[in-house]
Specification:
two-stranded parallel sheet; Tyrosyl-Transfer RNA Synthetase; Rossmann fold; mainly alpha; 55% helix; binds tryptophan; three-stranded parallel sheet
Length: 349
């Protein structure tokens, strides 16, 4: 047996749950979330959002967190946060999350969830926090100093997952160390006090990682992303400006031709066709023809989502009502869990 924390073991667990989900959706409670630092893009969509909708529609209990407190883990400003949150709710609803089935709520509105931080912090050592590879990578990428919040944000994330007794968390591979820490915290709490929490599993996403248009990691700051909220024209412009190379014959070669290959992968996830098949079809028609095909693929796929999004944004009060309702439900659940936690610790006075 590989040791439990190893990638192989987590992958196996993830595969096993993927296979079991359609048969026993009622066994699972999913928690996932996003930081409202900007608009959601195609990397979010194909990487995780689409899986959330699938699980919701299968009958899994689904919870989606707008991680507003996490915005200040590696930056000093909360500029545009209210607008980002509102747009995030619009994105969620437009892609098919149904607020009757999926609880959509914001971090800052659920004090009892955040209060789990106190007992949870007592269950991890400084060394464990210091060696988290994802925190280290985020620290480097941000160019920011290591704040107490950034150092402890995997613990905060454990609170997010455990307050609603989430047992599956759809994640990219880079998030697995956080899930491992969440499992450790749950295990230690249950052992030290009383069994309250499940040990959640990371569910690795069903789609391959979608690179940005230049082949690097997709991110808003690199200008290499296509956002769900873009218009068809903005999408066309972003794709037109993307960097390719001088070779006319289109081939799929992520190492050697990152720009061309990222375009092929973008078209592939939108059409369900393979990169090689698309490359062969375009052949020596060149980057212009490829870009035209990618633009059409993205815009066709997102046209209905974008139309719904626009409709939703006409009624801001509805979006805020959806959030308020999710917040109220999250508070009920969090207070109940916090009660169990206090009881487990004998804090009943
Ligand atoms: N860290 C995630 C992000 O950067 C957001 C998030 C916060 C999250 N809490 C979570 C994801 C709990 C999964 C589970 O987008």
């Amino acid at each position: 047996m590989p040791n439990e924390g190893s990638y192989a073991a987590q992958l196996e667990l993830s595969d096993r749950i993927h296979a079991d989900l359609p048969a026993h959706p009622e066994k699972y409670c999913m928690l996932s979330g996003d930081r409202p630092t900007g608009r959601l893009h195609l990397g979010h969509y194909f990487g995780t959002l689409i899986d959330r909708v699938r699980m919701q529609d299968m009958g899994v209990r689904t919870n989606v967190l707008i991680a507003d407190y996490q915005v200040i883990t590696d930056r000093d400003t909360t500029e545009h946060i209210a607008d980002n949150v509102k747009n995030m709710v619009a994105d969620y609803l437009a892609i098919g999350l149904d607020p009757k089935k999926t609880m959509i709520y914001a971090h800052s509105a659920v004090p009892a969830c955040n209060q789990l931080m106190l007992p949870f912090l007592s269950l991890v050592s400084e060394a464990e926090l210091q060696r988290n590879p994802t925190v280290k990578a985020e620290l480097e990428a941000s160019g920011h100093e290591l704040t107490g919040l950034l150092l402890t944000y995997p613990v905060h994330q454990a609170c997010d997952i455990l307050f609603c007794k989430g047992n599956i968390v759809p994640v990219g591979r880079d998030q697995l160390p956080h899930i491992e820490l969440t499992r450790t915290i749950a295990r230690r709490f249950n052992k030290r006090f009383a069994p309250v929490f499940p040990e959640p599993a990371g569910l690795l996403t069903s789609t391959p990682l979608l690179p940005g248009l230049d082949g690097n990691k997709m991110s808003k700051s690199r200008g290499n992303s296509i956002e769900i909220s873009m218009t068809a024209d903005e999408t066309a412009k972003r794709i037109r400006k993307s960097q390719t190379d001088g070779e006319r014959l289109i081939t799929f070669d992520p190492e050697g031709r990152p720009g061309v290959s990222a375009l092929l992968t973008t078209a592939s996830v939108c059409t369900g066709r393979s990169e090689v098949e698309i490359a062969e079809e375009i052949g020596d028609a060149g980057a212009g023809a490829l870009k035209a095909y990618v633009t059409e693929s993205v815009n066709d796929y997102f046209a209905p989502i974008r139309a719904r999004r626009e409709e939703l944004l006409k009624d801001e009060s509805y979006l805020l009502d959806v959030l308020a309702e999710g917040n109220a439900r999250a508070n009920e659940i969090a207070e109940k869990t916090l009660d169990e936690v206090r009881r487990a610790m004998g804090m009943v006075y």
